[in-house]
Amino acid sequence: MPKPGLLAVARPSPLLAPLLHSAFEVHELDGLDPAAFASIAPGIRAITCGGDSRVSGELVAQLPALEIIAVMGVGYDGIDVAAAQARGVMVTHTPDVLNEDVADLAIGLVLAFSRQLVQADHHVRSGAWSQGPMPLGRKVSGARLGLVGIGRIGQGIAKRAAAFGMEVAYTARTERQGLSYAYYPDPASLAARSDYLVVITPGGAATRKLIDAKVLQALGPGGVLVNVARGSVVDEAALVDALESGAIAGAALDVFENEPDVPQRLAKLPNVLLSPHIGSGTVATRQAMADLVAANLRAHFAGATPPTPVPECRG
Ligand code: 8YV
Q1: Partners of 211 in the beta sheet?
Q2: pLDDT digits over 202-245, tens only?
Q3: Is 230 a catalytic site residue?
Q4: Is 244 a catalytic residue?
Q5: CA atoms of 315 and 308, how far apart (whole Å)
Q6: Among 230, 289, 308, 310, which residue has the most ligand 1 atoms within 8 Å of its CB, making it the best to mutate?
Q7: Which of 35, 33, 37, 34 is nearest to 7 (CA)?
Q8: Rounded to 10 degrees, what is the CA torsion of 66, 42, 73, 146?
Q9: Thinking of the domain 99-274, which architecture would CATH place it in?
Q10: Which of the residues 175, 244, 259, 312 is marked catalytic?
């Protein structure tokens, strides 16, 4: 029996690639010219991609045999789920297995920004230490942390922040029952009471530029923005303006509007800490995500319901 065709929209992680090649005829979209694409398109029954990938309705329409889109990531805001559903195509993602890593990174960014760990390392290596001490940092323990989003990862960040004696509050569309953290109805009112505003809400149309100039103004000259969600949630131009003018103290960002391109104006600011979308980037977690992608594909092609469909595709 020939293996089913699979289109890898993003280059598969080396942790996922062997699992795919054992069961599928794998084609990488990147590098396929139109003629090559046209020749493989009729045989494509599965797509794999990352949480930050784009799978448009147009692409879905070009693949008549497509049955499943398996996202290696919890976020799937780049996938046209409505178009997939209209064609009866299943969409799966990899929730939960990355919660701890992303929450760890959020706290890591708060600490690294505040205690100036990147500058501190440079201060020692460059020999500047012998000329004198470096500037003092910001105290994290006991500070006020505001979460934009209180899903599974948000709650993980809250738990960690509470262990640092931070005063945790959150905003979400509706107040969550059973949580002891203070609720604020909108990002601006949350920002106004926060030293650190941490963004961990899904991307997509509903949250586009939710963190705008008004929210940054409310965060104020002592406030720091941390984004481990999606670049689309923050108005990046307004953020650069706020950082340049001192309207906020700084930002620690793992995600950007147009990855991997980071605007020069942002990259050259001294009051930012930047990382290249590494929230889930540990070996253990990427392996767990790869295994879950494989489990979803395996279940689907065995005629069973995949373990982790996106909410819209749950029966
Ligand atoms: C990864 C992510 O960068 O889970 C998500 O939504 O954005 C990240 O975990 C990506 O999905 C890796 O493929």
Answers
A1: 234
A2: 999 999 999 999 999 999 999 999 999 999 999 999 999 999 99
A3: yes
A4: no
A5: 11
A6: 289
A7: 37
A8: -70
A9: 3-Layer(aba) Sandwich (3.40)
A10: 259
Question: Where exactly does CATH 3.40.50.720 map onto the chain?
Answer: 5-97+284-313, 99-274
230, 236, 257, 286: which is the annotated catalytic residue?
A: 230
Whether 31 shows a pLDDT value over 90: the answer reads: no
In three-state secondary structure terms, 121 is helix
The structure's pTM equals 0.97
Tokens for 61? 């329409």
CA of 232 to the centre of ligand 1 (A): 14
* 3 state SS of 253: strand
User: What's the gap in Å between 284 CA and the centre of ligand 1?
Assistant: 14
Query: Tell me: the pLDDT tens digits for 81-125?
Result: 999 999 999 999 999 999 999 999 999 999 999 999 999 999 999
Q: Select from 2.40.280.10, 3.40.50.300, 3.40.50.720, 3.10.450.50 the CATH code of 5-97+284-313.
A: 3.40.50.720
Looking up tokens 């699992």, which residue turns up?
19
**Structure tokens, 259:** 């990855």
